[in-house]
Every structure is written in C-alpha cells, then in structure tokens.
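User: Hi! Is it possible to get a structure for several chains at once, not just one? Here's what I have:
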Amino acid sequence: MDEIKIYRGALTASEVLTEFNRGSALVMGTLSTSTNSRTAESASSEYCIPGDTSTCDPPVARWDFNEKSGQTAYDSSGNGNNGTLGANSSAGSDDPSWTIGKKGAGLSFDGSNDYVIVSDSNSLDITNSITIMGWFKLNLLQNYQHILAKRQGTNCQLRL
Ligand SMILES: [Ca+2]
Ligand SMILES: [Ca+2]
Ligand SMILES: [Ca+2]
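Assistant: Yes, the chains can be modeled jointly so their relative placement is included. Here is the combined structure:
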C-alpha cells in the first residue's frame, strides 16, 4: 500500500488522471501550463487541476509511507492525521512492515492482523462524497478484510 489520499468530494475523471500520472515512474513533460506560466506539475500547484485557475482543494489526509522505519505514518496534508502502525507505538505482530512502494517506501500488510490506525479527527468526518485513492497490490482479499475502514467505535478511528 502506498500514497494514500483522502479528499472531500468526488474528483473528476481528469483530476483522477492527473493523480494517476503523478504516480507513474516517469512523467514526460507537463499536462498544461497555468495562466501564470507556472507548470502544472510544479510543487506550488501540486493539488491544482492543470489549467484550472480556481482554488485548489488539497486532500484532508495524505500518507506517502516514505518513513521506511518506525511506528508512525505521517500525514503530510497538514491536518495531523498521523497513523500508528498496529494498536500502539510498540513493535508488535499487528504492525505492517516497511517495504518498497510505488513511490519511495510503502507498507506491506500480512492480511492477517496488520493495520494502521488513525485517531478520530474533524477533518476525517466527511458526510457527503469522498474520494480515496492510492496504490494497492493485493495478493488476496477475503471476507472481513478491508483496505480502509472508518470504525464507529469509541473514537471513530480510521483504519488502513
Ligand atoms: Ca511512498
Ligand atoms: Ca505498533
Ligand atoms: Ca501480523
């Protein structure tokens, strides 16, 4: 699993295509140039739709899984939705393992009891449409296994 992003609202097909191209190993040129001559692939307009000059909507959570070690998967969205590997920050059999991802490092889940847990936060309380994107390589998906779940428990955790 790698490069997980959660957006409020549904992205359009062209926005999804833009995201997909960012995940490729090599992007030849840029998709377009905005009116201020800044290329659409520049970091300063990372979340803008190419050619669109309206306000860009960044994801509410973004986990790149490039830490390569440790117990925390940091959220780079600015909303602080950091994930903990397994139930807590101690090493345990419920921790996914760091591996080579689609971009940089990623996380490998054993399909048995591994997960990343994200504490409840207002930024993850999305009531209408939602877009979840990322890179997944599945060996198997069985009953009760899931890629991402919002649990209605004591603290509405998000589990990857
Ligand atoms: Ca990564
Ligand atoms: Ca742990
Ligand atoms: Ca395990």
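Residues 36-44 have pLDDT under 50 and may be disordered. Residues 13-22 form the longest helix (10 residues).

User: Great, thank you!
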